């Protein structure tokens, strides 16, 4: 994993999934500064750029959970589209006042998702040339942002980069996402919800591999280009659930987990429970990473089961973190039912 001695300014609104506990180690460094603000606040962002004079902007900021976008699209439009627009506008004006050399070196890296491409059939992969076909409010908001970023390169010459990644997993992921949700529910002896028939296919990318790829794109990517990052790890959702259950057994055997013993269960997989599918659920994602491999030499290093073992170990060691980030705002309830 690449390490840097660059100075870092983190701007985060700290919505339900944002917590200072996630970045305490980073904030111990004198090279890091945290600002609790909304990227959609133009005046604030203009002040941040004026005060800190960044060499690059990495736009990780997003509402990112598909189920929540079905229940309430507004925050996704505000952060993912309006927020990205504000960042682009403030960056454009900031860069225009820089000396020529600094203008050429500046980068705006927009971190996006493979969900903008929609759903694949049984064969094929998403490439950088795949037409956009978003099927959820979340995917549509990210697709809109991608188009804005691209337009600012072609219209204003802002030196942008776009990445579209597959499903991330690893430490610090908010427990609404599939892998930590299944893991925590299994430990507590709760039902493991599987949407539809569980045959939806996802390509899983370990978070540290993703970060390494972003570093390569930031420093070596060609302005105006987009790069797909994937884990080359296609699994059906039910296969992923079964793998989590199997690996968890090696950490904490079900026969020794009182939460299962009381229900007469001897295996975590006995907790699997099929529920109604998500509206507009994409069937399959798969990423073609040929471009970033050839141009930047990036390939994912962490095998899926190795990454899962790291992830399970981290969550077992950080149950206090899990409880803290979910307190008063999320009880692992079903979301994404399209409530009016």
What this model shows, in words?
The protein has 340 residues and is of the alpha/beta class. The protein has a domain of 215 residues: NAD(P)-binding Rossmann-like Domain (Rossmann fold, 3-Layer(aba) Sandwich). 42% of the residues lie in helices and 15% in strands. It contains 13 helices and 11 strands. The strands form 4 sheets. A 4-stranded parallel beta sheet has the order 3-4-5-9, sandwiched between helices. The model has no long low-confidence stretch (mean pLDDT 96).
DSSP strand (E) fraction? 15-25%
Measure the end-to-end span.
Answer: 45 Å
Share of helical residues: 40-55%
Note the overall shape: globular
Strand order of the largest sheet: 3-4-5-9
- Please summarize the sheet with the most strands: 4 strands, parallel
Summarize the structure.
This protein is an alpha/beta fold. 42% of the residues lie in helices and 15% in strands.
């Amino acid at each position: 994993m690449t390490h840097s001695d660059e100075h870092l300014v983190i701007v985060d609104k700290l919505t339900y999934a944002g917590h200072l506990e996630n970045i305490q180690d980073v904030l111990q460094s004198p090279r890091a500064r945290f600002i609790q603000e909304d990227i959609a606040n133009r005046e604030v962002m203009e002040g941040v750029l004026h005060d800190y004079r960044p060499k690059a902007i990495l736009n990780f900021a997003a509402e990112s959970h598909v189920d929540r976008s079905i229940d309430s699209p507004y925050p996704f439009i505000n952060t993912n589209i309006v927020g990205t627009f504000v960042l682009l506008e403030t960056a454009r004006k900031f860069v225009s006042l820089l000396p020529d050399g600094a203008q050429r070196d500046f980068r705006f890296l927009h971190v996006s998702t493979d969900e903008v491409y929609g759903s694949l059939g049984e064969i094929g992969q998403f490439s950088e040339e795949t037409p956009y076909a978003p099927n959820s409010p979340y995917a549509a908001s990210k697709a809109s942002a991608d188009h804005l970023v691209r337009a600012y390169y072609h219209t204003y010459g802002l030196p942008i980069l776009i990445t579209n990644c597959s499903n991330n997993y690893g430490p610090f992921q908010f427990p609404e996402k599939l892998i930590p949700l299944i893991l925590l529910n299994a430990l507590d002896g709760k039902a493991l919800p599987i949407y539809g028939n569980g045959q939806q296919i996802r390509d899983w990318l370990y978070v540290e591999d993703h970060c390494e790829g972003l570093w390569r794109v930031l420093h070596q990517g060609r302005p105006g280009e987009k790069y797909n990052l994937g884990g080359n790890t296609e699994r059906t959702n039910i296969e992923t659930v079964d793998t989590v259950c199997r690996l968890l057994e090696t950490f904490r055997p079900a026969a020794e987990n009182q939460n299962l013993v009381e229900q007469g269960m001897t295996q975590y997989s006995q907790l699997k429970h099929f529920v109604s599918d998500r509206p507009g659920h994409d069937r399959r994602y798969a990423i073609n990473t040929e471009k970033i491999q050839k141009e930047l030499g990036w390939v994912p290093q962490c095998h899926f089961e190795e990454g899962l073992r790291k992830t399970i170990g981290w969550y077992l060691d950080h149950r206090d973190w899990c409880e803290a980030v979910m307190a008063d705002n999320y009880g692992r309830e079903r979301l994404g039912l399209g409530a009016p």
